[in-house]
## 1
Amino acid sequence: MSALTKRKAKKEAEATLSEVKLTRREKRERFKKRLECLTPEEQRYLKRKQFMEAVWPIFRGLIVFGLCFIILYPLIFMISTAFRPSSDMNDPTIMWIPKHLTLSNLKQVIKAMNFGKTLSNTLVLNIGCSLVQVATCAITGYGFARYQFKGKKILFFVVIMMILVPPQIILIPQYMFFRYFNPFWVYNAITGKYINLINTAVTMYLPALTANGLRAGLFIFLFRQSFRGLPKELEDAAALDGCSPFTTFVRVMVPNAGSTFLTVFLFSVVWYWNDYYVSTSFFTENETIALTLKNLSTNIKVLIFGDANAQVNTREIIVWMEAACLISITPILILYVCLQKYFTEGIARSGLTGM
């Protein structure tokens, strides 16, 4: 660095330091003098700018506080209720902190939900479908991002419609398809019967295998955006090394889109974990946590009061419902806390924050 550059940098540092040391009164005086040198239009602009700079932090703080209250209020209420006895729900003096902390609600709920078996069934269905869906949606998104073929725009329009159209519209045809499953359209002609796939894991795995599972359209779009952001030179270099298109995808593109894979996997896990509407259509037995929560009120009445038709005050039974919800979301919260850093990175790279 030359002597002239050093002197210039020193002067700039001294000017910055002197600016910091200015009092509010001196800043106001300098601002007034600056206004006197400007036109009326420029003066109004600077005043508006100064007003917005003063008001915006307060407005932003109120927005953040409101959003935090809306998001955190149900969670705080759930935690507060899960650890209090049912008698405390009728005590008007108790708002947030219970007078008597108890773990009996959690123990009773775990027994009523048969939590060990239910959790294992949910993990097998959830993790398995998520892994299959990530693989199929990644291949589909890569095809849309890197290859040109006839009907590409029409097929991508179908993907967008998968995002926009609610699953309720196609649920009845899906149910009929699985209830009267006819492989290759010849099974019924040969045997005169149909295969009933209701209450089997195939009803969830088969859509995931065909990139048509829960929120599959969104996942395809995320992978498409992620792969489009990777340089084309990666594929050219792989082709020069003799890699086939599939080998290029597995050995070059997948490692460079690792954060997107993790993001989509987390999204898929959460949606399969919380799914209630689709599961109730294909399962009539309590196979998953979401379905167990549906019938928890009846199970609690049978376990604690000995009668499924027992008349129990809603304010009293809510302690067990909140305890069950707390247990149900705990695995997802642990998963997110452990992978939060990579999840945020994947969101930034997958195209949700800038397209």
## 2
Amino acid sequence: MNAKMILTMTAAVAAAYVCAAAPKISRTSGRNAAAAAAAADETNGKGPKVKIDTFPRMGASCKLSAPSIPGGSSIGPVFTKKRDWIVLEAKYQTYLKRIEQLTFTWHVVLETKTATTKDKEARAKMAPYSYFTQTTTYFNIPRGTHAASVCLHPSYLEQYGEPRAVGLVITDSEGNVLAGDVDSQIEGIVAHPKTIEKAFWNDPDVMNKKDANGEPLMEQRQGLLDRSKTIWALVNPNDYELVLQ
């Protein structure tokens, strides 16, 4: 065996040894690799903490009759006509193993002309729109799917009308915005603004706008309640986290 053949065989053996000793290259697909990276980010607290899956419905879609308990009253039903509540519900996902607390700030605008009251004279004296806001903080939130909700008593639907614009902002314990959006059927109120800072409740031109007679187009009112403070607290209670009082 000549020297040239010995050198060739030595090189081949060395190459085979290097290949065997080299770390194996992962063949994970791009999609799986991205999912793995996202999961790692979530575990490390770097990924999205919260995502809104289902935004509240407006108009007639959010009108619901309250659940009743047969035999729960000695005098029986007093108000015999059908009355609907305004029930705004959102579904959201959390991705961290546990979040200490999340604050939900709601902004709701009712349209007066959709009120069910027959008193047209009283309705004519009201501003065309009524604005409500409510803040609710949930705490000790585990990873998974959850719901958040606010309600208005039937008297508000009868007097002030149906929701025509809804905004929802979710913040953490330090006030950082984690998720938020706006939906609107009202001209002049922008749906899905590029940033939540541009939402209608932050816009003086919207909130302070007046008609040709100098009368305000929108009046702020009280009465929007977290679901836990209404009869609706008894419906699907496991979907809702504990409210910080």
## 3
Amino acid sequence: MSSPPLMPAQHQLPPDVSHPPAVRPLAKGTLGRRLVVRVAALVALVAVGLSAVVALAAYNIQVNQVDGRLDRAIARVTGPGPDSPSLGGQEIGTIIAEQTTGTIKGMILVDRASNYGVRPASLSVEALQQLSVLQLDSGERSTIRLVDYGLYRVTTHGDGTARVIVGIPLSQLGSAMTSLMVFEALLTGVIIAAAVLVARGVVVGSLAPLNRLAATATTVSNLPLESGEVEGIVRVPDADTDPVSEVGRVGLAFNHMLDNVEGALAARHASEVKLRQFVADASHELRNPLAAIRGYAELTRRERAELSPTMAHALGRIESESDRMSSLVEDLLLLARLDSGPALDLAPTDVTEIVLNATSDARAAGPDHRWSLSLPDEPVVALADRYRLHQVLANLLANARTHTPPGTRVETAVAVADGMVVITVTDDGPGVPADLQSSVFERFTRAEVSRVRIQGGSSTGLGLAIVAAVVAAHRGTASLDSHPGRTVFTVRIPVARPAS
């Protein structure tokens, strides 16, 4: 395995949970906006429908009134009296026409006169032609548009050989209907606008508890729950947990869920604290017996020439394994200390010097690799713990040496970017398997045994975990970019600010 990569080790600060994101109840795509639009559309549909019904009813009423006037007009024309049609009592604009076989003549009453009450005028030829072809039975009514005269309501009296045609103008009806339609359009617009305003207020007020519930959920989702030690998880206000309403039942269930989550987190944190304490205590207690074993094994070196080869080999293995066990115990103790709150000796530290020393040590430990450096001309100073930062570099370089074949080129580079010291360790080994890239940063994650090149043992899986913990304690980040032929570890820690 090429240098097992680091997953991002980002030191996350607790978010500001006292200011949840602003809620816009009528923003695009929100339930409130959809409800307001649908209510407005429904009101508009109802208003338009009612306007159409009112307009149709008003039109029919006025047409019936016109028909009554038409009946009275034709009664005056066809009633008992002299041969000529009677003009008395007729309205201005009334059309009277007489049709016999092959001929038709007619007049229109244009204005009033002192002798007759109204004065007739001859109809135009085009109007007479329209009336002559009119297919109406006696007493039947129809609405037609006469050339030069406009819209008329007409009826007939008589048989097929001789008949009288009388028409009443509908100009007043058209004006009245136009005024009515304009009034209804204005009224519909006012109703729709009022409906939008009322619906907006009702919807916003009705959805306010749901928005508060969403804000609470957002605040909880931003809490660093992965740490296990979380206090003061906010709850839905009591006003929004009324079991009578649907939203209140959701709020009540949400608070109950948060109670369970907080209890589970507290239990998990207590268990982790006990486990860390046990690991720290066990590691500390193991140091003394391991030191004794290692010391007694070293004492036997003086007399190993007198021992049998089998006994000398066994004592050598005891000494080697005690050394490896001591290293593992020290790593566990360090991780336990970092978990309980890292106490780092932070001070301005020359990163270039640490990289030089760590690479020199790696070159001595792995002469079969090709080691190189890329350093800036000027010293790079970071706010770091010198010993722990050296441990980070040593672990990364040892990781590259352990998990890449001989002849692999390993380059360590230092740079400064965006107020952070950037340290990269790059190798051209086979890369990290895709199935390990998401977990190599976890503790006790190891590559396949066949890929580990440690002779006489295997990796403990704690090296990269220590790197992650130390970098996070420095309020820095560590990340990985790996594919066959190129694996890059990137560590970022804050630059030391000059004293003011």
